Every structure is written in C-alpha cells, then in structure tokens.
What we know:
Blueprint: E1 25-27, E2 34-36, H1 37-42, H2 58-65, E3 72-74, H3 92-103, E4 109-116, E5 119-126, H4 137-153, E6 157-163, H5 171-190, E7 195-203, H6 205-208, E8 217-220, H7 231-238, H8 249-254, E9 260-261, H9 267-278, H10 287-290
Parallel strand pairs: 5-6, 6-7, 7-8, 8-9
Antiparallel strand pairs: 1-2, 3-4, 4-5
Amino acid sequence: MPFFSKPTYSTISPVKKKDIPKDLYTRCPKSGELVYTKELEKNLMVVPKSGFHFPLDAATRIESLIDEGTWKEFDDELESKDLLKFKDTKAYADRLKTYKKKTGLNDAIVCGLGEMGGIPVSLSVMDFRFGGASMGSVVGEKIARAVERAIEESCPVIIVAASGGARMQEGIYSLMQMAKTSAALARLKQAGLPFISVLTNPTTGGVTASFATLGDLILAEPEALICFAGPRVIKEGTNEELPAGFQRTEFLLDRGLIDQIVPRGEMRERLIYFLSVLFLRKEIPSEEEAS
Length: 291
C-alpha cells in the first residue's frame, strides 16, 4: 500500500471566450494603447492620451463644424465617369461602384452652405474613404461651384482637405482641376472674400499643389502629412537621409508653409474666431484684453 495517495483535483470545464464584437476597441498607432471605439468616436476620432488624429468622415466633420440646423448640401448628385475606360488591376467604373457602396457618397467631397457661430460659410470637406479622396473632375467641379456660390452669397470659403492627390484614372481631366480650382479661388480673392484652408492627414500631390495651399489662412491638424511627393519618393530620388518629422505639419509650421496647428477638438472655435477677423473685420483683441 503506497504511503502517499494521489491528491484529487476538482476539474473545471474550460471557459469559453465570449465573442468580442468587431471593432469594439481601436489600437492607437502612436502609443499602442487600446481605446474604446465609442469613446474615440465621441472625441471626433482623436485618441485622448496620445492626441493621435484618426481620419474623420465628411459627415461627422461637417457636424462638428457647422451650427446645428443650418447645413444645406449642394451638387451631391454629381458623379465621376470612366471617360478614359481606364483599367489596371480593376476597371475604374468598378472601383467607383465600390467607393459609392462603402461611403454612401457619389464622390470624394461634400459641399454646401451653412453657418459657423452665426457666420455664413461655403464649406467643402473631402472624404478619404472615397478612393483616397483623389481629385478627379467631380471634385474639381464641386470646389469651383462652392467658390462661385460663395461669391454669389458674399460669404467666406472653407475647404477641409485630405487627399492622395490627382486621380490617375482620369488622366488630364484630373490635372485640369488644379487650374480650375485655383482660378476659382482667384475670383474669390478679387471679390474680397476670405478662403481658409484646413489641411488634414494626408494632403498630398495635386491637391497640395493647387487649392489646398492657396488659403489666406492655412490651418492644419497635428502631425498631418502635407506634401507634393511623399518622403519615400524624395528619399529614393535624392539618396539623402531626411530630417525627423519631414513634411509633417510641425516641420512645415517652422518653415512658414502653414499658419497654425489646431487640434480637431478646437477647430470650430478657432475657425469662428478667424472668420470674425477676416470676414466680419472685428479687431484682434490686445494681450491685455485677451487676458
């Protein structure tokens, strides 16, 4: 008979992992922390601790900027056409159908009239979900119409840019929009009306080389990539090591390309302030008055 008997253990049935809903948490690319997605959405897709700015869809951005009940969208029926019958790995016409289904939009920009702090504005907001918010004939046409509408209504223009650049599937039709949007803004300037450009991550290519950097005032979100050609392309072309933060908004602010860096949660109030100065011609308070 053995001196020691085997101890008996109670058996516990394996605990089944609960099915975690998809996208319940979002990982911050900057800090690595997991953020409750609903809280992230309440904070306009900005991570509270790290300050990382995720992309924001056009509808949510408009809601965050415009006075409630004052927004009226225009030209939402305009759609891009596959005039060049472009094909690479997938036909352009098929890509457009996919983008429309994914976003509920007919193209990569939403334009309309509204009020900010009671001040009338012509606002255009690009949506990166639609083909990287590339600028094709419809984007250029809608911006030109938004500017012309501002001239008719005698109000300022605000464009929130986020784009991978010109839409290659439309070829020269896309590149023509650089001249069209720039010419429209020249007419706005002649009319004595202000244009505020808001740059978000990323704003690149033909959009940067045209309307996005023509603002009377250029604001940008923190750490956004703003460039014509990206850092990888420049590094390969020059065979040079690029400085830290190259082409990010902080780097560009130091070199005078942008006027201010404004966190997303402060953007509405800052825009209202600048509209008061540029459009209503209110005097900037002195340091004593501001304090």
